[in-house]
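Input/output pair, single chain:
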Amino acid sequence: MYYTSLMDTPRPGKTRVTSVSLRAETLEAIRARAGKQGVSSYIEEAVQRQLQREAIDEYIAAAEAEHGPVDPAEVSDKAERILAHHAAHRSESAPADAA
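Output:
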């Protein structure tokens, strides 16, 4: 019954069946959070995020090897500018109050 509901939700791309071992508590937590999405989709998305993080870490390491380490003050300054930019655009696109 459980597996039938997973098959009702098609996912893009080719998939292969595999087996993984998880602690019982971990699997219970995944099932509680996955909901209608299903355990396989939840785990797929989590693994994709981890792969993206690792790719970003590798990119940063390569860039730092070529150009030297990033200045934390410069990163902080740019992050503040990005946040300010997004905040300004959010306030511009927010609907006016109908009061």
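DSSP finds four helices and no strands in the chain. The two ends are 51 Å apart (CA to CA).
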